[in-house]
Amino acid sequence: MLASKKQRVGETMALTVNTTKHRLKAGKMALGFGVHHLRTVAAPVLAAATGHDWMFIDGEHGAFTIQETTQLCIAALPTGVTPIVRVCAGALDEATRALDNGALGIVVPHVDTAADAKRIAEAFHYPPMGHRSWGGPPAVYGYQPPSTAEAQAAINAEILTIVMLESPEAVRNAAAIAAVDGVDVLFIGTSDLTAELRISGQMGHPLVIDAYQEVGDACRRHGKILGMGGVYDEENAARYVAMGARFVLTGSDHSYIVSGANQRSGFFNNLPVGPI
Known about the structure:
TIM Barrel
């Protein structure tokens, strides 16, 4: 027994596969489970149990500490649900810490130009693809990676880099953004886009349809993935999926809870009350 344990010390661990990235490469849809309030290791298990492929840990609008974020990422790794973290615009240091500690993808909001996208892609990839710093044995290798060069090349291939387009300027620059090496997904933040267009909340407005068409065309031209966030009604969600959106955020924990709880309370409140 002792001998077998000694043989395992220092063994190289297999890299955790980014199942979402592989689904997208295969032409499939990948569904995201938004996490805003949940803090426990049950979150990725719940995401898996409900048919989701990736977990969207919202560090822009959620009140997550870096410790909570990374614990959720590490908990997700053995479940097959891809841990993806949204950081605040410009918070690339938080993003790289999340990557060192279990994240397999990063969402950066408010990306308006190709220069923004290039800076992001370089920050999230090791040389020669970028300038990410090696922080020691990473969580995605179970803290026991192979040689540094081998590990860096393999991790570069698994990381998902997702840029959010949320303004008319970003839509106009979609082709240039999509042309940036190292960017995988152009994710339309539809809610903020409608606000910037002065049509807040009008998810089916012709200007929004035009934006999806323009960004989708750019993605197809450059081999990138079109993403959709903020569209939760079935009519408009179905429209944009039909237009090519495959990296899809289905909602978040608060919307799931409110929707499910309303459905159940409505059922019971509408039941006829029996005799006292």
